[in-house]
Design a protein that fits this description.
single chain, 299 residues, TIM Barrel, eight-stranded parallel barrel, 8 strands
């Protein structure tokens, strides 16, 4: 992010949450599960599928983590009850990963068991680099027991190609995204084209080694390049899907859908919307600039 964009985002962080919420709500379904259900129904009506995320991460105690688990179980119940074409995404730190890894594992097992009973799927989100090793370890332990679980990897991390190239990761259901957390240059690509190039190299490896890939990007360049990869490899549509965030580049979302490709939208909801929204603003400083202009507009 250039210095001006950094300054704008820093200014937005100083605003009252109530002000930020007016603009940031485009990225979240709402604070209640019913809000997420409503949004997913609207997406499904357009032929678009979804994954639902309960906002929150890095809980400080097991009680908070158990409450997050209950919310995840309630999401699965709501998907079943409302016959939604959707699955669940979850953050390991929200379920206690940094508190107690075995405790987190057992929490996720309970969620996977319920999802399995509903013939549904759970995605393990990737978080900042301090948790990457533990999340991959968690996923591999879960994958040994369940076939309804997948994981996210981030192309801006230099390690990602090596991570997906290990034999233990063959047959994985991936979400491949660029990544949003701020990381040091020693472990993360900083140049935009380097991140793109690594994304495509990782995608190529995944598709050549029997993995299902959620191609998660809002970058027109990467979508077009992915179209070429799909055509060149003559891939059947059961080998991949495209994925995007709720409220981001709906024009591109609709184009992918109209082109006949499966598109899944990440639909977050919950009371812990602020951190998520700030990360979205960091990713899209134009929105932060829009907020700033609105604050100082007297029209």
């Amino acid at each position: 992010m250039n210095p001006i964009n950094t300054l704008i985002v820093s200014f937005v962080k100083l605003l009252p949450k109530s002000v930020v919420h007016i603009f940031a709500k485009r990225y979240i379904a709402g604070e209640k599960l019913d809000d997420a259900v409503r949004v997913v129904k609207e997406l499904n009506a357009k032929g678009i599928v979804a994954t639902i995320d309960v906002l929150g991460e890095a809980v400080s105690n097991k009680k908070e983590s158990e409450r997050a688990k209950i919310e995840c179980l309630e999401v699965l119940d709501a998907i079943k009850k409302n016959n939604l074409n959707a699955n669940l995404s979850l953050k390991p730190t929200q379920l206690g990963l940094v508190i107690d890894k075995e405790f987190c594992f057992n929490q996720v097992i309970e969620i996977l068991e319920k999802a399995k009973g509903y013939n549904n799927f759970v995605r393990i989100d990737m978080e900042d680099s301090s948790t990457t090793d533990d999340i991959i370890e968690l996923y591999q332990k879960l994958k040994a027991k369940y076939n309804n679980v997948g994981v996210v990897v981030q192309s801006y991390l230099r390690r990602t190609l090596a991570d997906v190239s290990t034999p233990q990761m063959n047959g994985t259901n991936y979400r491949l995204c660029k990544g949003i957390y701020v990381e040091p240059e020693e472990i993360a690509f900083k140049n935009r084209q380097e991140v793109r190039d690594n994304f495509l190299e990782v995608l190529d490896h995944m598709l050549d080694h029997g993995n299902y890939v959620g191609i998660a990007t809002h970058d027109d360049y990467l979508v077009n390049k992915s179209y070429q990869v799909i055509k060149n490899k003559n891939l059947s549509k059961d080998k991949f899907e495209f994925q995007m965030l709720y409220g981001v580049k709906e024009r591109l979302r609709d184009k992918i859908n109209s082109d006949g490709y499966k598109i899944r939208i990440y639909v977050p909801f919950g009371e812990h919307w602020y951190k998520y929204s700030i990360r979205r603003l960091q990713e899209n400083p134009n929105m932060a600039w829009h907020i700033t202009k609105s604050i100082f507009s007297f029209n």
